[in-house]
Amino acid sequence: MAVPVILVVDDEVSIRRTLREILEYEDYAVEEAEDGEVALVKLRASKFDVVLLDVKMPKKDGMEVLEALSKEQIDVPVVMISGHGTIDTAVEATKLGAFDFVEKPPDLNRLLLTIRNALDRGVLESENRRMRQTIVERHAGELTPILGDSPAIRTIKETIERVAPTEARVLITGEAGTGKELVAKWIHGLSKRKEGPIVEVNCAAIPSELIESELFGHEKGSFTGATKQRIGKFEQAHGGTLFLDEIGDMSLSAQAKVLRALQESTITRVGGDRSLPVDVRVVAATNKNLLQQIEQHQFREDLYHRLSVILFHVPPLRERRMDIPVLTENIAERIARRNGLQAKPFSPDALTALQQFEWRGNVRELHNVVERLTILSMGERITQLDVERYVLPGGSTANPIVGLLDRYDQFAEFRDSAEKLFIEHKLTQNDWNISRTAEAIGIQRSHLYNKMGKYEISRGDE
Question: Do residues 1 and 200 lie in contact, with contact meaning Cβ atoms separated by under 8 Å?
Answer without folding.
Answer: no
